[in-house]
Specification:
- This protein is of the alpha/beta class.
- The protein folds into 2 domains: 54 residues; 144 residues, no CATH class.
- It is 30% helix and 24% strand.
- Strands 1, 2, 3, 4 and 5 form a 5-stranded mixed sheet that branches. The protein has a 3-stranded mixed sheet with strand order 10-14-13.
- The longest helix is centred in the N-terminal third of the chain and has 25 residues.
- Bound molecules: 2-acetamido-2-deoxy-beta-D-glucopyranose (2 copies).
- InterPro entries: Nucleoside_phosphorylase_d, Nucleoside_phosphorylase_sf.
Length: 266
Protein backbone atom coordinates (compact mmCIF):
# COMPACT_ATOMS: atom_id res chain seq x y z
CA UNK A 1 0.00 0.00 0.00
CA UNK A 2 2.82 2.36 0.98
CA UNK A 3 4.66 1.40 -2.14
CA UNK A 4 1.57 2.13 -4.18
CA UNK A 5 1.24 5.63 -2.68
CA UNK A 6 4.89 6.41 -3.29
CA UNK A 7 4.62 5.32 -6.87
CA UNK A 8 1.44 7.38 -7.29
CA UNK A 9 3.27 10.54 -6.13
CA UNK A 10 6.07 9.73 -8.51
CA UNK A 11 3.61 9.14 -11.35
CA UNK A 12 2.02 12.54 -10.64
CA UNK A 13 5.39 14.26 -11.00
CA UNK A 14 6.06 12.39 -14.20
CA UNK A 15 2.66 13.34 -15.57
CA UNK A 16 3.40 17.02 -14.90
CA UNK A 17 6.64 16.56 -16.78
CA UNK A 18 4.84 14.86 -19.67
CA UNK A 19 2.33 17.73 -19.88
CA UNK A 20 5.22 20.20 -20.06
CA UNK A 21 6.68 18.17 -22.91
CA UNK A 22 3.32 18.17 -24.67
CA UNK A 23 3.14 21.97 -24.34
CA UNK A 24 6.63 22.28 -25.82
CA UNK A 25 5.71 20.08 -28.75
CA UNK A 26 2.47 22.02 -29.18
CA UNK A 27 4.53 25.11 -29.94
CA UNK A 28 5.36 23.52 -33.26
CA UNK A 29 1.74 23.39 -34.48
CA UNK A 30 1.60 23.29 -38.25
CA UNK A 31 0.00 26.04 -40.27
CA UNK A 32 -2.68 23.56 -41.41
CA UNK A 33 -3.79 23.16 -37.81
CA UNK A 34 -3.73 26.93 -37.28
CA UNK A 35 -6.16 27.30 -40.18
CA UNK A 36 -8.42 24.71 -38.47
CA UNK A 37 -8.31 26.65 -35.20
CA UNK A 38 -9.27 29.91 -36.93
CA UNK A 39 -12.17 28.09 -38.61
CA UNK A 40 -13.27 26.59 -35.29
CA UNK A 41 -13.28 30.03 -33.68
CA UNK A 42 -15.47 31.38 -36.45
CA UNK A 43 -17.84 28.39 -36.23
CA UNK A 44 -18.08 28.71 -32.45
CA UNK A 45 -19.07 32.37 -32.73
CA UNK A 46 -22.47 31.29 -34.03
CA UNK A 47 -22.89 28.23 -31.72
CA UNK A 48 -24.33 26.41 -29.77
CA UNK A 49 -24.66 23.24 -31.85
CA UNK A 50 -26.24 19.87 -31.28
CA UNK A 51 -23.52 17.20 -31.43
CA UNK A 52 -24.31 14.14 -33.52
CA UNK A 53 -21.96 11.13 -33.54
CA UNK A 54 -22.11 7.91 -35.54
CA UNK A 55 -19.80 4.90 -35.32
CA UNK A 56 -20.04 2.87 -38.53
CA UNK A 57 -19.90 3.95 -42.18
CA UNK A 58 -23.24 2.18 -42.75
CA UNK A 59 -24.81 4.45 -40.12
CA UNK A 60 -23.16 7.46 -41.70
CA UNK A 61 -24.37 6.53 -45.18
CA UNK A 62 -27.92 6.03 -43.89
CA UNK A 63 -27.77 9.41 -42.16
CA UNK A 64 -26.60 11.25 -45.29
CA UNK A 65 -29.10 9.36 -47.45
CA UNK A 66 -31.96 11.03 -45.54
CA UNK A 67 -30.84 14.36 -47.02
CA UNK A 68 -31.79 16.07 -43.75
CA UNK A 69 -28.32 17.45 -43.11
CA UNK A 70 -27.69 20.80 -44.82
CA UNK A 71 -23.98 21.75 -44.80
CA UNK A 72 -22.97 25.23 -43.72
CA UNK A 73 -22.21 27.07 -47.00
CA UNK A 74 -19.16 28.91 -45.58
CA UNK A 75 -17.68 26.25 -43.28
CA UNK A 76 -19.05 22.84 -44.33
CA UNK A 77 -16.45 20.95 -42.28
CA UNK A 78 -13.34 21.08 -40.12
CA UNK A 79 -10.71 18.32 -40.20
CA UNK A 80 -9.35 17.69 -36.74
CA UNK A 81 -7.72 14.68 -35.04
CA UNK A 82 -8.06 12.72 -38.28
CA UNK A 83 -11.81 13.15 -38.24
CA UNK A 84 -14.07 15.29 -40.39
CA UNK A 85 -16.43 17.38 -38.24
CA UNK A 86 -19.28 18.50 -40.49
CA UNK A 87 -21.06 21.74 -39.69
CA UNK A 88 -24.61 22.34 -40.80
CA UNK A 89 -28.26 22.17 -39.90
CA UNK A 90 -30.97 19.55 -39.55
CA UNK A 91 -34.45 21.08 -39.86
CA UNK A 92 -32.87 24.47 -39.11
CA UNK A 93 -31.25 23.29 -35.88
CA UNK A 94 -27.49 23.84 -35.83
CA UNK A 95 -25.62 20.55 -35.80
CA UNK A 96 -22.00 19.38 -35.79
CA UNK A 97 -21.73 15.84 -37.02
CA UNK A 98 -18.77 13.43 -36.78
CA UNK A 99 -18.15 9.71 -37.27
CA UNK A 100 -15.99 8.60 -34.38
CA UNK A 101 -15.05 5.11 -35.55
CA UNK A 102 -14.96 1.83 -33.72
CA UNK A 103 -12.73 1.50 -30.71
CA UNK A 104 -13.43 -1.44 -28.52
CA UNK A 105 -15.58 -4.10 -30.18
CA UNK A 106 -18.94 -2.70 -29.07
CA UNK A 107 -20.88 -5.96 -28.82
CA UNK A 108 -18.25 -7.90 -26.96
CA UNK A 109 -18.10 -10.74 -29.45
CA UNK A 110 -14.96 -12.57 -30.51
CA UNK A 111 -14.55 -12.11 -34.23
CA UNK A 112 -12.42 -13.66 -36.94
CA UNK A 113 -10.42 -10.43 -37.16
CA UNK A 114 -9.01 -10.98 -33.67
CA UNK A 115 -5.23 -10.88 -33.45
CA UNK A 116 -5.26 -13.25 -30.47
CA UNK A 117 -7.66 -14.74 -27.97
CA UNK A 118 -7.33 -15.73 -24.34
CA UNK A 119 -9.47 -18.77 -23.49
CA UNK A 120 -10.61 -18.47 -19.89
CA UNK A 121 -11.03 -22.25 -19.72
CA UNK A 122 -7.30 -22.73 -20.33
CA UNK A 123 -6.59 -21.15 -16.98
CA UNK A 124 -9.58 -21.85 -14.82
CA UNK A 125 -11.27 -25.24 -15.04
CA UNK A 126 -14.11 -25.80 -12.61
CA UNK A 127 -14.47 -29.10 -10.79
CA UNK A 128 -17.03 -31.59 -12.13
CA UNK A 129 -17.27 -31.78 -15.89
CA UNK A 130 -14.53 -29.16 -16.18
CA UNK A 131 -16.40 -26.90 -18.59
CA UNK A 132 -15.72 -23.20 -18.17
CA UNK A 133 -18.58 -21.23 -19.68
CA UNK A 134 -16.76 -17.88 -19.57
CA UNK A 135 -15.54 -18.30 -23.14
CA UNK A 136 -12.72 -16.11 -24.39
CA UNK A 137 -11.48 -12.57 -24.69
CA UNK A 138 -10.44 -11.42 -28.16
CA UNK A 139 -7.77 -8.84 -28.93
CA UNK A 140 -8.26 -6.96 -32.17
CA UNK A 141 -7.03 -3.86 -33.96
CA UNK A 142 -8.20 -0.39 -33.04
CA UNK A 143 -9.32 2.08 -35.68
CA UNK A 144 -6.78 4.82 -35.89
CA UNK A 145 -7.57 8.18 -37.45
CA UNK A 146 -4.63 10.36 -38.36
CA UNK A 147 -3.84 13.79 -39.72
CA UNK A 148 -2.72 12.15 -42.98
CA UNK A 149 -6.26 11.93 -44.33
CA UNK A 150 -9.51 12.84 -42.61
CA UNK A 151 -11.97 10.03 -41.87
CA UNK A 152 -9.74 7.26 -43.29
CA UNK A 153 -9.30 4.86 -40.37
CA UNK A 154 -6.31 2.54 -40.38
CA UNK A 155 -6.03 -0.60 -38.26
CA UNK A 156 -3.69 -0.10 -35.32
CA UNK A 157 -2.44 -2.66 -32.84
CA UNK A 158 0.95 -1.24 -31.80
CA UNK A 159 1.64 2.48 -31.98
CA UNK A 160 4.86 3.26 -33.81
CA UNK A 161 7.91 4.42 -31.96
CA UNK A 162 9.38 7.80 -32.78
CA UNK A 163 13.14 7.22 -33.02
CA UNK A 164 14.13 10.61 -31.63
CA UNK A 165 12.01 10.17 -28.52
CA UNK A 166 13.08 6.56 -28.16
CA UNK A 167 16.68 7.76 -28.06
CA UNK A 168 15.74 10.28 -25.36
CA UNK A 169 14.00 7.52 -23.40
CA UNK A 170 17.07 5.30 -23.66
CA UNK A 171 19.23 8.03 -22.17
CA UNK A 172 17.03 8.12 -19.07
CA UNK A 173 17.74 4.49 -18.16
CA UNK A 174 19.83 4.19 -15.05
CA UNK A 175 18.36 7.39 -13.61
CA UNK A 176 18.47 7.34 -9.81
CA UNK A 177 14.98 7.06 -8.35
CA UNK A 178 14.16 7.69 -4.72
CA UNK A 179 13.10 4.72 -2.70
CA UNK A 180 11.51 6.82 0.05
CA UNK A 181 9.03 9.67 0.13
CA UNK A 182 10.16 10.49 3.66
CA UNK A 183 11.73 8.74 6.65
CA UNK A 184 8.72 6.52 7.24
CA UNK A 185 7.34 5.82 3.75
CA UNK A 186 9.56 3.69 1.52
CA UNK A 187 9.21 1.14 -1.28
CA UNK A 188 10.20 -2.42 -0.41
CA UNK A 189 12.60 -2.50 -3.35
CA UNK A 190 14.71 0.12 -5.01
CA UNK A 191 12.68 1.49 -7.95
CA UNK A 192 14.27 1.37 -11.36
CA UNK A 193 13.65 2.91 -14.72
CA UNK A 194 13.32 0.42 -17.54
CA UNK A 195 13.05 1.22 -21.21
CA UNK A 196 12.58 -0.79 -24.36
CA UNK A 197 9.69 -3.05 -23.36
CA UNK A 198 6.20 -3.02 -24.75
CA UNK A 199 3.50 -1.18 -22.87
CA UNK A 200 -0.14 -2.08 -23.27
CA UNK A 201 -3.48 -0.71 -22.18
CA UNK A 202 -6.37 -2.76 -20.86
CA UNK A 203 -9.99 -1.78 -20.39
CA UNK A 204 -10.26 -4.02 -17.35
CA UNK A 205 -8.19 -4.06 -14.16
CA UNK A 206 -5.68 -6.84 -14.75
CA UNK A 207 -5.17 -8.08 -11.22
CA UNK A 208 -4.87 -11.58 -12.59
CA UNK A 209 -1.66 -13.53 -13.13
CA UNK A 210 -3.05 -15.67 -15.99
CA UNK A 211 -4.04 -12.60 -18.01
CA UNK A 212 -0.67 -11.00 -17.43
CA UNK A 213 1.15 -14.19 -18.43
CA UNK A 214 -0.95 -14.39 -21.58
CA UNK A 215 -0.14 -10.79 -22.50
CA UNK A 216 3.56 -11.35 -21.92
CA UNK A 217 3.74 -14.63 -23.85
CA UNK A 218 1.48 -13.58 -26.72
CA UNK A 219 2.40 -9.94 -27.25
CA UNK A 220 5.58 -9.53 -25.19
CA UNK A 221 3.66 -6.85 -23.31
CA UNK A 222 5.62 -6.08 -20.18
CA UNK A 223 3.10 -3.78 -18.57
CA UNK A 224 -0.58 -2.99 -18.72
CA UNK A 225 -2.18 0.26 -17.68
CA UNK A 226 -5.67 1.61 -18.19
CA UNK A 227 -5.01 4.95 -19.86
CA UNK A 228 -1.90 5.29 -22.04
CA UNK A 229 -3.41 4.15 -25.32
CA UNK A 230 -6.07 6.89 -25.16
CA UNK A 231 -3.36 9.53 -24.72
CA UNK A 232 -1.13 7.90 -27.35
CA UNK A 233 -3.90 7.67 -29.95
CA UNK A 234 -5.10 11.23 -29.28
CA UNK A 235 -1.57 12.62 -29.65
CA UNK A 236 -0.78 10.60 -32.76
CA UNK A 237 -4.16 11.44 -34.31
CA UNK A 238 -3.17 15.08 -34.01
CA UNK A 239 0.37 14.57 -35.28
CA UNK A 240 2.20 15.03 -31.95
CA UNK A 241 4.96 12.62 -30.94
CA UNK A 242 4.86 11.71 -27.27
CA UNK A 243 6.66 9.91 -24.52
CA UNK A 244 4.67 7.92 -21.97
CA UNK A 245 6.34 7.29 -18.64
CA UNK A 246 4.41 4.82 -16.53
CA UNK A 247 4.92 4.36 -12.83
CA UNK A 248 4.13 0.67 -12.22
CA UNK A 249 2.90 0.08 -8.75
CA UNK A 250 -0.30 -1.94 -8.54
CA UNK A 251 0.99 -5.41 -7.96
CA UNK A 252 2.89 -7.10 -5.21
CA UNK A 253 6.09 -9.05 -5.66
CA UNK A 254 4.27 -11.99 -7.22
CA UNK A 255 5.46 -11.29 -10.73
CA UNK A 256 8.74 -9.49 -10.69
CA UNK A 257 8.57 -8.06 -14.19
CA UNK A 258 5.42 -6.12 -13.34
CA UNK A 259 6.56 -4.35 -10.24
CA UNK A 260 8.37 -1.15 -9.59
CA UNK A 261 9.07 -0.60 -13.23
CA UNK A 262 8.93 2.85 -14.59
CA UNK A 263 8.09 2.06 -18.14
CA UNK A 264 8.72 4.13 -21.19
CA UNK A 265 6.96 3.79 -24.48
CA UNK A 266 6.50 6.01 -27.43
C1 LIG B 1 -21.09 -7.80 -33.48
O1 LIG B 1 -21.65 -9.10 -33.48
C2 LIG B 1 -22.03 -9.60 -34.74
C3 LIG B 1 -22.54 -11.03 -34.54
O2 LIG B 1 -23.46 -11.10 -33.51
C4 LIG B 1 -20.89 -9.60 -35.72
O3 LIG B 1 -21.35 -9.98 -37.01
C5 LIG B 1 -20.29 -8.20 -35.80
O4 LIG B 1 -19.15 -8.23 -36.65
C6 LIG B 1 -19.89 -7.73 -34.42
N1 LIG B 1 -19.36 -6.38 -34.49
C7 LIG B 1 -18.07 -6.15 -34.38
C8 LIG B 1 -17.69 -4.71 -34.47
O5 LIG B 1 -17.27 -7.04 -34.18
C1 LIG C 1 5.40 10.53 5.00
O1 LIG C 1 4.52 10.75 3.91
C2 LIG C 1 3.24 10.22 4.10
C3 LIG C 1 2.47 10.43 2.80
O2 LIG C 1 2.54 11.74 2.35
C4 LIG C 1 2.58 10.86 5.31
O3 LIG C 1 1.31 10.29 5.50
C5 LIG C 1 3.44 10.64 6.52
O4 LIG C 1 2.90 11.30 7.61
C6 LIG C 1 4.85 11.13 6.27
N1 LIG C 1 5.72 10.78 7.39
C7 LIG C 1 6.61 11.62 7.90
C8 LIG C 1 7.43 11.10 9.02
O5 LIG C 1 6.73 12.77 7.51
Amino acid sequence: MAARKTAQCFTMLLLVWIFLQVILVSAAVSSKKRVSWIKIKEINKVGLYIGLVTVYTTEENAFFATGAFMPNPKYPFVDLSGRRFRVGTIYEKKVIYVRCGIGLNPNGTVSSSDVAEIKIGSYNVPQGDGLNMLGKIGYSNEQFFSVKEANAAEPLFWAEVNQHWLHLAASLEGMELDKCVNSSLCLTQKPMLVFGLKGSTANIFLDNAASRDFLFKTFEASTADMESSAVVMTCLSNGFPLLVIQGMSDLDQEIIRFIHLVHLLL
